[in-house]
Amino acid sequence: MRIHNAAFVTSAADDKGWPNDIHPEIAFAGRSNVGKSSLINNLLNRKGLVKTSAEPGKTRLLNFFLINEKYFFTDLPGYGFAKGDKAEIARWKPMIENYLNGREGLKALVHIVDIRREPDDLEAGMAAFAAAAGLEHILVANKSDKLSKTAALKSAREIEKALGKKPILYSAHTGAGKDVLWKAITPLLHGGVSPRTRPD
After folding, report:
1. Among residues of the chain, what percentage have pLDDT more than 90?
2. What's the structural domain count of the chain?
3. The domain spanning residue 14 has which CATH number?
4. Residue 23 maps to a domain
């Protein structure tokens, strides 16, 4: 997809701060320090649109970005960060669940994992959130440039075994996997907005 413009819209903790405009929307989630912000910037060909930080857990609100004036990308707070305030951490799970279940126009969850890490219960829980919300679950294994091709493929098989879905291998550093991820996202954006069907 050609990106004509991409702009930050707002940050929000709950539905009172969500943008009122409804467009096809894609959410991005992942463990803190998985390279989520860098991946979104790379995907959109923008260096500083989504702020990156060396401090894990920096993203603590839902951050909404308007793409080509007709799509939303939403950067969700990272999970699994143990050094933050306990009360704040306790709010992250309901914040994410409420958004995934309640955001009209939301089409898919791009779930980013670190290709060098074995998925744990937190990753499995995020996949379950997507399923419960009736969302397309797009699994992405980021930082593929950190491993050899053989090691990356081996790790991808382990991730698939753990989470039940073959991941897209991605490198926010080199851009490898960008075209594959766009091919997964683009049909969802062009499908318009309709109510989601949630599993019984």
Report:
1. 66
2. 1
3. 3.40.50.300
4. yes
- What token pair was written down for 38? 């860098």
- Cα–Cα distances in angstroms (integers) from residue 146 to residues 9, 13, 98, 110, in the given order: 33, 34, 34, 21
Tokens for 82? 């143990």
Q: Dump the DSSP string for 113-139.
A: EETTS---HHHHHHHHHHHHTT-EEEE
User: Strand pairing of 71-75 and 62-67?
Assistant: antiparallel
Q: Cα(5)–Cα(73) distance, rounded to whole angstroms?
A: 12
Q: Are 137 and 108 in contact (CB under 8 A)?
A: yes
pLDDT tens per residue, range 161-193: 999 999 999 999 999 999 999 999 999 998 766
Cβ atoms of 3 and 45 within 8 Å: the answer is yes
pLDDT in tens, 50-80: 876 545 445 578 999 999 999 999 999 887 6
Cα–Cα distance measured from residue 172 to residue 135, given in angstroms and rounded to the nearest whole number = 24
Element (H, E) at 180: helix 178-189
- The pTM assigned to this predicted structure is 0.90
Query: Which residues span the domain enclosing 19?
Result: 6-189
